[in-house]
Amino acid sequence: MPLKRTLLALAIGLAVLPAHAANPRDPTTLELLARIAALEERLAAVEGHYETTQVAEVHQRLRVVERRQELQAEADAARATTATTLALDAGKGLSVKAPGGLEVKLRGLLQGDARFFANGSSQNDGFLLRRVEPTIEGSWGIASFRITPQLAGDSATINDAYIDLKFDPRASVRIGKAKAPFGLERLQSSASTAQVELGLPSELAPGRDIGVQLSGDVAGGALNYGIGVYNGAVDGRDGLTANPDGEFEYVGRLFWEPFKNSASNAGTLGIGVAASVGDTVGSGNNFLPRYRTPGQEQFFGYGSNIAADGERLRKTVQCYYYRGTFGVLGEWIESSQDVRVASGTGAGTRATLRNDAWQISGGWVLTGEDAGYRGVVKPSSPFAIGGDGWGALELAARYGRLEIDEGAFPLFANAASSAQAIRSWGLGLNWYLAQNFKLVTNYTQASFDGGAAAGADRADEKALFTRAQLSF
């Protein structure tokens, strides 16, 4: 702006200079220069007043807009503290938020199976509702809760019923019935497992149990720990609602994800160890396990005259690795139990029997989505009739083995009806049509050592399972 004023003043000066030369009465050059300076000052004053007026107007408008925004924010905050809001999300279910910070969510899992066995190896061909699990979750300050009944089957039961007190990410206390911090595959959500049924190591791991657990994340979330005291659960089963022998079981687990806070594209690696120990005394299915095949058929059980009589000790090493579309999971578990012949032949004989199992399973997402411990979280292109989307497809494979302690035969188990070992492999195809709907097809085959009369091997189990799953 000063340059424009100077040029304007010079133009006026040049215009009048020739006139001065022609008329002696015209102003002198010095007078003209003084007039130019005066004109320049007047122009500057006018422009300054104009600019000041514009700036003032802009500032005034900004103050009005900011005040309106403040009033709107205050109104929103007031409504948030007094109003109840209802929201429905495909991934989080139905939620209700009430004044005071209380939030309640309704979620659900529905699984319908069709099962077919080849060569007449089972009489359990047919259809069944595998899981019907409505879930109510809630949070209020540091406290949260979860209640999950199981409505599938002939009678309703309670899967989860616990309260969490989250004092800090490094320390949370859980009270009630929940999954014990032990088996890697058992700790997966039932909606996320790669195959229809769990692998053989999960037959040795405890399921849900009633107790108190302290858990948390340290080292920036890379290291997770969990320790708890429980009533005690038989291998591969949930604990009872009561503690029939008055003994307790102690469980502890450490799980480390070394790449969790890394900026590199190294994938997701998890390595864990866990153990449980406690005494159990009693006979029957509430104290001693029965082990099942991948087709959920019993292949091993202790004799009716055998009792648990002392320490039950479990230990496991577990890991997984996921990178891009590929993933692999491995687990080894050993379970030992002090047993005693309560009556009949060999009455009073005691032994410590050690059974162990391992498996390795892998998956490949054919459609390019990331593989993970939670499965394919959301297809990139959900299935749509008449549209381009086909959802996500995942191939899964698994191999595992479970061996019974040789010392179990013939005194503690009958070799004509209980196998000494099982080897199993399976293939699966998972079709994630949408975030909440999945179709699963599995073929599994298992072979046995022993388990039949006259020392023969039990016939191979060949099973085709399919599942339709809806979750929200």
List the helices and strands and how they pair.
Blueprint (H helix, E strand, L loop, with lengths): L1 H21 L6 H54 L2 E5 L3 E6 L3 E16 L8 E15 L2 E8 L6 E12 L2 E9 L28 E11 L4 E8 L18 E8 L11 E16 L6 E3 L5 E4 L4 E18 L2 E16 L8 E16 L26 E12 L15 E16 L2 E14 L10 E11 L1
Antiparallel strand pairs: 1-2, 2-3, 3-4, 3-20, 4-5, 5-6, 6-7, 7-8, 8-9, 9-10, 10-11, 11-14, 12-13, 14-15, 15-16, 16-17, 17-18, 18-19, 19-20
Short description:
This protein has 472 residues and is an alpha+beta fold. The protein contains 2 helices and 20 strands.
Structural description of this entry:
The protein has helices at 2-22, 29-82; strands at 85-89, 93-98, 102-117, 126-140, 143-150, 157-168, 171-179, 208-218, 223-230, 249-256, 268-283, 290-292, 298-301, 306-323, 326-341, 350-365, 392-403, 419-434, 437-450, 461-471. With 472 residues, it is α+β, with helices and mostly antiparallel strands. α1 runs antiparallel to α2 (29-82).
